[in-house]
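seq:
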Amino acid sequence: MDTPLSTIAVVGLGTMGTGIAEVLALAGREVIGIDISEAAALGAVASLEASTARAVGRGRITEEERAAALARFRTADTLRAAADAELVIEVVPESYEIKQQVFRELDAIVSPTTILATGTNALSVTRLAAESQRPERVLGLHFFNPAPAMKLVEVVSSVLTAPPAVEAVTRLARELGKEPVAVGDRPGFVADGLLFGYLNQAAAMYEANYASREDIDAAMKLGCGLPMGPLALLDLIGIDTARTVLEAMYAESRDRLHAPAPILGQLSSAGLTGRKAGRGFYTYDAPGGQDVVPDALTPAAGAEAGVGRAVASVGVAGSGTMASGIAEVFAKAGYGVVLAARTQEKADLAKGRIAKSLERSVSKGRLTAEARDETLARITAAGSLDAFAEVDLAVEAVAEDLEIKQQLFAAMDKVCRPGAVLATTTSSLPVVAIARATARPEDVIGMHFFNPAPAMKLVEVVRTVLTADDVHATVRAVCGKIRKHPVDCGDRAGFIVNALLFPYLNNAIKMVEEHYASLDDIDAAMKLGGGYPMGPFELLDVVGLDVSLAIEKVLHQEFRDPGLAPAPLLEHLVAAGCLGRKTGRGFREYARR
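struct:
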């Protein structure tokens, strides 16, 4: 099976098939595009002509290279045209019946050495291979949309696949300028297997009316650096397509995280399948359009939560990185800040950390020396909470321990003046349990900043059932003044970002536990296939495995979903003291500084 794969047939000339054909033709392969629809074939030719013309216009290829690529692509309406192909890639609709029919017909047409590849992202490659007369030559070759731009290709082996076939298509993927990752056969493979569980949870979160579609999407873009929010991405993928993938995953895993959220079925049944229909979670300017237009659910411009309380001075309790970062944010925005720690020495050290941060900004040209001095002058370091007596807003940023936070809030309740807003930066604890430690729970709210606070734009604003309307309005207004983007959510474990992020990270660990794919391949798949700025294991090591485990336990305890139980491998690494970058070893080893 050591073949150059110079002649390749692509069966199915929809968006994906046409994109794959373009990649192959530009890479010097003879490509036979096969589709029973004449309109699809004509559309593929027109698409290739237009996209290659754009490539010439942008200087990516020459006119001669374009002409040669177009000459290498021809279309046909019958599978018999694949007779001389050394590789056939099918990208027909996601149906066992349709795909198996294609493979049965190809068995009688192609050479015994021809490799048959399925482009499925949801169906079992093993089941498809078992229907072939030569299952050893059947594998999965999962490109990502748009195929010309996306670098990832998942090479999927079944228990029946011959290694030479895998080697041949892996080599081809590299010659196409793609990054192949080797994965086993299970619905969703790596990238979609992790991505669609996350998307499903986001849809369920929206369906539960926990947060608005805009806030869910903004939270994941700003909190995780993702190129798109999950609901906008579902609209792009196609809500019906996502539901089909999730149903296949759930049929295999029986994991409740993969059971399609009812809203996906409801929208699909109503024909509201996303961008292609002009409406899904959002409404678009036209079917197939990409510009979101206002609809009945769009928040009114400038609509806020009401009239808030005046805030001129802010207290920040804590002496760690988060506390100093939050103090820096408020001081830069012109607020007088009291930074209080357990001792004067700790408070001074925290202020010194802010001074170094400001100095770095000056050296990079982001801040003037005058602004640095003015910002630092607005910060008063104090060794006691007594300094909070006159602040208008008190923000705690101490250890993520309920008892410690409750003790702190009980102390702030006694010190802070009546009417002061008390905010907690907790990322996982129930805000109402912290509020109940005070005699004024209506004044308590969550303000979950993200680390590093000076750089990260997101603040999750967490209302409890007791939080007063004007307290909520106050915090929303303050977020605007400190140039942060507030998103509203209710008081439940994980809020928005962690509730969606950590189950995804946990599922990645389970993939490694099951020897399904390597750390490197999973990280590469999510960066190249999902547009994530970091792979899950890179992120886990940065966040800290102990922190991740604590959040996983809180989520599991609150939602009681077996699928949220922390992966045993995570627990074992934490028990062994392998906590990530901070200890020099987590999922990977790091050089000691």
